[in-house]
Each structure stands twice: as C-alpha cells, then as structure tokens.
Alkaline/neutral invertase
Amino acid sequence: MSPVHGDHSGQNGNVRSLETTVATLFEFGEDSDVMRLLDRPRQVNVERKRSFDERSISELSNIGSPCRRSCFLGSPRPSSYYESHPMVADAWETLRRSVVHFRGQPVGTLAAVDHSVEELNYDQVFVRDFVPSALAFLMNREDEIVKNFLLKTLRLQSWEKIVDQFKLGEGVMPASFKVLHDPVRNFETITADFGESAIGRVAPVDSGFWWIILLRAYTKSTGDTSLSEMPECQNGIRLILSLCLSEGFDTFPTLLCADGCCMIDRRMGVYGYPIEIQALFFMALRCALLLLKQDNVGKEFVKRITDRLHALSYHMRSYFWLDLKQLNDIYRYKTEEYSHTAVNKFNVMPDSLPDWVFDFMPSRGGYFIGNVSPARMDFRWFCLGNCVAILSSLATPEQSSAIMDLIESRWEELVGEMPLKICYPAIESHEWKIVTGCDPKNIRWSYHNGGSWPVLLWLLTAACIKTGRPQIARRAIELAESRLSKDSWPEYYDGKLGRYMGKQARKFQTWSIAGYLVAKMMLEDPSHLGMISLEEDKQMKPLVKRSASWSS
C-alpha cells in the first residue's frame, strides 16, 4: 500500500442532521446513539486561595458578570460584549475562517491561515493543534465540529499505516490530515500523515493521548456519553493504550520515545523519556479509566491502566521532581553504586549538572525536569509537561503549588514580555550544534529552542485556576493582549524575553488564537476547567518515599 493515505467521497454541500453527520463521517455502518444531556457543573469561586481539587466541582458557585450564564449555556453573546471586547471578536472571526469542511460538515481547523508565505503543512488539520480550537468551540456550545473531528480521526486510525515498507501499530493516530477539493469532479479526498511526511519521519506519540483527552473533554462538556460508548470509540481507546501498555524490556513505567514525537517535532534532545509525553500519557490513562466500559474487555484494560498509573505516578514524583533539596542531593551524589540500596539509581554524574540550574532554582518552588534516563538528566524546564502534570494531578497539590511558585519567581525567564517559554533555557554554541544538528530554525531563543508560544497561555491559565492562582493567568493574558492581535496572531516569538515576532513564525496561527480564547473564557467562567482537569485520585497518593539513603 502506498504511504500516501486517502479517503474519497463525493462533495455534498448540504447541511445534514447530526445523526447523518456521524454516519457519514464514521463510515462504520453504525447509527449514532441518542444524545443524553446531563446537568452542567456550576461555576467555581476561584478567588479563594484553595486549589480546584480542594474545592472540587461539587462546590461550584456562580460568580462574575451577568452575561456569563447566558453566554455559555447555549444562547449567543450579546453584540455589546464583542463591542467591548474587540480582540475577542477578532479572535473568533479569525478562528472561524480556519474551519475545514468535509462533505459539508466541519471537521477541524487549519494550523494557520497565512497566505503570505508557502503553506507547507500549515494547511492541514493537526490533532494536537486542534485541541485548543476544540475547547474554544465546546466552551461556546458549538459541539458539532468537535464530535465530527473525533469521529473522522478515529476513522483514520483504522487505516493501514506503512512507512518505507514498515507497518506502524494499529492504534497510531495521525499527526494531521488534509481535505483536498476537486471542483471539476465534484469530489473530495482526505489524506493523512502518520509520520511519513513529518520532519525526521517520526510518528506522533502525543496524537493518541490528545484524542483520548479531547474525547473526555467532549463528554464532560456536553453530557453526551453516547459517543464514547460507541464500540468503535471503545476499540479506538484500547488500540491506543495497547501501544503503550505492552510488555517489553522496559524497567521504567515511562514511555521511551524518539526526538520529534510531540509538540517539539524537531531534533531538540528530548529523546528518551520526555516530560511532555509522560504527563500526557498519565492524563490519557486517567481519562481512559473514566471512558472505558466495565465489560469483560474493559475490565482487563482497567486493571492494566490502574497498575501503570500507580507505578508511573511514583516514578515521576520521585525521580523527575526537582526542588532545592533534591538539587542539593544530586550535587552530592556518589557514582558507580550497585544493588537496590543505591542512592544514585540512574548513575547520574554530578559534574553534568548545568551551571544555570543553581541560579534558576528558587528557595521556594520546583518542577518536573525534562527527562530522566540512565546517566542522563535533562534539567530544562518544559512548560507543557508541567502544566499537564498539574491538570492531570500527576503533580501532588504540594508539587503543583511549587510549580506555580517557580513561575512567579522566574517570571522574566519563563514569561518575559510574551507568554510563554516552551522550554528554558535555550541551548546554544557547541551544544546547539550537537543537540539540534545545527538546525537553523531552532537557533537560541527561537521556535522550540526557548521560543515563546502564545498557545501555551490556555494551559497556564488552566493550571493557575486549578491551583487557586488566577492572578498569574490574568497577568499573562494582559501581556498577550498588548500584542497578539496587533501582530496578526503569530505562531511564536523570539528572544530571551519573547520581544520579537518569530523569524519564521506564521501569522494567523490558529492555536495561538484558540489558546487565547480558551484562556479568556476559562478565566471568565472557571467551571470550564472541569472538562480539562482531573481531581486527585486519593488511592494514588501514597507518600513519595525513597530509600532511607536518599537523605543521607
């Protein structure tokens, strides 16, 4: 089979009913179940200095402006709202221009709508890129596009995936797909990329995790459990998890990954066990527990998921966590230790500690470092992984607060003049040559190498609300509002402070737009946090204990 995957259909511009849409998009021959609308959660009083978990959804109460209930319970916003919020109006208008249709139905959003430069693959619908767009539509009670996207990508998962004569795992989700229009033949084709066209030819490990997370967000937001309960969706979840839960030679519960398998999709030294993938893996496992049916097949997966979650949470909280005390412990490590009593279990060389981390680490605060593997620790800060760790409750409440303390203490380094650094610090000089292979796009303080990405604003805002620190999110949003719309919604910013529009940044980048909208709506109505946040599992909260020799 050719590595170029296609799905063909006749063009039909008529708007169909939602039931017809599901059957059309899915093509499995199964009818859609009847939607069941559940009560929406009430709103949460975020100004109280307790985390979202401590309050829990049961404590939600009405707060804020008079328009909130009418705005987010199905009725349109009054025109006066947009008149007083022109940047929000501009964002929605631009976001809607990015919507992609297939058979007359919305199925996603383009990565960017910037016709001033070569489109490359920015004219495709990326799974990870669509997540903030999907959340924005869900918060605005526009559910159809999200449901269609989930069904279409699930259909693509069933395709045979071959890259250079090698067959990929059955559960792999595409990185992206593209709708091709043939107006002469009145014909539409969908092509999907599973990594065979990506930089470095790396399959997207994060796509399947984002799909599960979004399915749970859709279910939580709409109350429609019929979608997740469809046999095809249940099978799709199991196929994704089967790729991750299979037994092998691993001695760690974390997932071993290649460089370029996630948002950082170029060579940036994140191979091994990157924090972004581990946090998404943890969150996807927890979402799957809530979505899987408790039938014979489902029960087997639930047991495997539960066992993995316990091992993964212990491993991450123990070995990926860095604060001042742990940094001092690593500084004093002995090497070449043997047996189960070893303190330096990964045989990390203390001399490999980078100079910058000693100044970067505040007296109060901490974070999950970028990577831990034999004889290697990547001490860089990665924003997405740490924010997802908070939202998924991979981070304990104490660790979540410490991450927020770090962001406040190192505001200039991590936020600067435009939120938000994808990682910190940048690698440069000889290290840049070795790690990136002299990548001209990832020069220091640019793109993935310490660039500032506005899309991360929604993750920061969600983490701030969950930890009871909405003032941090407000400050970051105000920074973004000073420039984003004026700069035509760029993909990323360059410079140590994020002062300059990215050298190769696309304008009208969809997830920059959607990330701002989600942050804005979430801060306005914090009950939306429930669709993307998971409360702490008390059964998964054993005290993080190491061998007694850790403190010696």
